[in-house]
Each structure stands twice: as C-alpha cells, then as structure tokens.
Amino acid sequence: MEEHKKRIIKAIRYIDSHLDADLSLEKIAEVAMYSSFHFHRIFKLITGETLQNYIIRKKTEKSAFYLAVKKEMEIKDIYLDLGFSNHSVFSKTFKKYYGIAPSVFRNSAPETFHKIVQVQSKNGQKDTVFSQYICKVDNLLNWTKMNLKTEVKQLPEMNLAAVMSLGIANVEPSYNVLIDWAKKKQLFPREHVKMISVYHDSFKVTPPEKVRIHACMLLDEELEKTEGLIFPETIHAGKFIVGSGEVTLEDFEQSWVALFLWMNEHHYSMRKAFPFEVYHSNFKEHPEGKMIVDFCIPV
C-alpha cells in the first residue's frame, strides 16, 4: 500500500501544480506510472474521490477563494489560470458546485468571512452561505494583540522533508511517518528541531476532511529525492506576516482567523504561496498543553 500511496501523492502534487494544463486520465496515470485502468481505481481507494471529482473540486474551490478574497482579479484571469477553456464552461461548473454564478458569488462575498458553506435549501437546491465569525471582528483583533506578537518579516528559504496528509485527521499519523523516517536518518531527536505544517488548501473553501496539509521537518540541506512517503518541499524566501505566541491546539483556528483579519486591517494581500505553522515546542511536554508557534502568511 505504501508504494501505491507514494505514486498517488506524486499524482496529486502534479495535479495541484498544473491546474491550467492537460489533466486527462491518461496524462495523470502516466505521471503516477500506472495504466489508466488501474490508476482510476487506486486513486479513488486512497483519496475517496474519483480523479475527475478531485480535479473539478480543486479548480472550483480555488476559483471561489480568488473570487471572494482577491476581488481585484478579473474573472477571466481566474478561470484561465485554473484551466477552464472559456467563461461558459467555468460558469456552468461553478454554478453546479456552488449553486450560483461566479459573478453573483463574488458580489455576495462580504469583506470578511469565516468559511464558505454549502447548505441544502428547502427545494433541494444548493445555497452558498458566507459563514461569519462567531466572535466580533474587534474582539478577534484584540485577542491577536493579547496573544500573538504580529509583525511582517522577510523569511529565508526553507528546505523541508514532507509527508502529505489528506484531511485534518491524518496530520498526526503523517507526522509519525515523518518522525520514524527522521529517526532512521538520525535527524530526530535533536536540539532545535523544527516541525512545520504547510497548508495547501484553505479551510475557507475546502472541507476539513479534504484539506491537504503537509507535515514537514526543517532540514539543514535540501532532500535530494523522494524516499518512500517522504518528499522534498521548499518554502521560498519572501515576505510573511508572522504571528508568534504560546497557544493550545484549541487556539489554532482562532489564531489563523485573527491573523488573516490583521492582514486585511493593515491592507496586505496574500500572494500565491502557502501559509504554514512553525512549532518551536511540543504541547505534549507542557502542563497546560501549550506550544510556541509561528503562524505565517505569505504577502
């Protein structure tokens, strides 16, 4: 099964970085080194989705994120960047997924919102709801001041060893795989080791059970090749909003929400890179279950 997972991970990474390219079954099967017949079945077994559903969901969720958050982007630029051939195809796909046209979706998106939620209306149709924050925005910003030291920093390039997790529930098992590998390489335990979670999907648009998160370890040197389920990943140098604090696991969602609000309040916008967390301590070693974390947003 590990060999199958390794190949499917390779396929998923290819899909997510080539959403504007040819993503036919034959092409993706070739990337994963399967016949089309076998790849289709194995992909669904491991991900819980058909290849076609996965590709459409990724494209549509990403377009929803850009429509709602990056309102300066032209709709045409969004759908072409994501590989839709024309406005008609994009609009039809989007409406089937969210129940409304892309332009209506964009116009109904408030300046700040927590998540995009789909609900079934009484007539059986899909309704798209922009879920608001449970706390008032002012309260969240005050919480940020009290609990996070927030600043804009230039961060260096980081070379990582990574394990892919599909769904929030699989993050801890992915870290266990990573640590077992690191022990064999004598990279763990050691002083000042840094674990990092990289978010390749946004909880604003992707359900928690389908969010793609990479469980990573910071390395001194670049990992040259994939080793089993472990693959190299790079966080490129650049400017980041960094919120640092000592928090519990229950505080993570609020920390991210508050930090994105801080970004909006200070007129920054997120660039095309992935947010991540850097862990400086282990919550299991703290009497109150707290850990020191950097929450990082690329801007």
UniProtKB/TrEMBL annotation:
Query: HTH araC/xylS-type domain: from which residue to which, for each copy?
Result: 9-108
Highest taxon, organism lineage: Bacteria
The record lists the lineage as: Bacteria, Pseudomonadati, Bacteroidota, Flavobacteriia, Flavobacteriales
One GO molecular function term? DNA-binding transcription factor activity
Keywords recorded for this protein, A-Z: DNA-binding, Transcription, Transcription regulation
- In its keyword annotation, does this UniProt entry include Transcription regulation? yes
The record, for InterPro entries, names: AraC_E-bd, GyrI-like, Homeodomain-like_sf, HTH_AraC, Reg_factor_effector_dom_sf, SmbC-like, Tscrpt_reg_AraC-type_HTH
Query: How is this protein named in the record?
Result: HTH araC/xylS-type domain-containing protein
SUPFAM superfamilies for the chain:
Homeodomain-like, Probable bacterial effector-binding domain
User: One Pfam family, short name please?
Assistant: GyrI-like
Residue ranges of the TM segments: none
